[in-house]
Design brief:
Distance between the termini: 30 Å
Number of strands: 0
Strand content: under 5%
Radius of gyration: 30 Å
Largest sheet: none
Order of helices and strands: HH
Oligomer: single chain
Helix content: over 70%
């Protein structure tokens, strides 16, 4: 790819109004580039964090589903005392509710889109 760079030089006194304005524009451009680089780094860090979080959430979801199914399978056809059954029902409902809360939290707080 061919790249063409154009440089403009103005030879005048150091007190020139044009030089001062050009210097101000250059400083503004450099500051803007610095902010852009910092923002790109923040976005990269967010992408990494979300990918890691997604993996942890998937692992948690798998754990909850598997634990619930193992409990159900182990207790299939078993009659438990009412007190134990009540506690077990609460555990199963709690894990299902937690799964729902995690999903709702993720859905209610999506990452913002690109700026307009």
């Amino acid at each position: 790819m061919f790249r063409l760079e154009v440089h403009h030089y103005f030879h005048g006194s150091k007190d020139s109004e044009v030089i001062n304005k050009l210097d101000a524009l250059l400083l503004g451009q450099q500051a803007s580039k610095t902010r852009e680089v910092k923002m790109a780094k923040v976005v990269d860090d967010l992408v990494i964090a979300v990918e890691a979080q997604t993996g942890r959430v998937a692992s948690l979801e798998t754990y909850i589903v598997t634990a619930n199914q193992l409990i159900r399978d182990a207790l299939a056809g078993v009659v438990l005392p009412a007190e134990v059954q009540t506690k077990l029902d609460a555990v199963l409902l709690g894990t299902e509710a937690n799964t729902g809360r995690i999903a709702a939290a993720l859905e209610a707080n999506p990452l913002p889109g690109p700026p307009a």
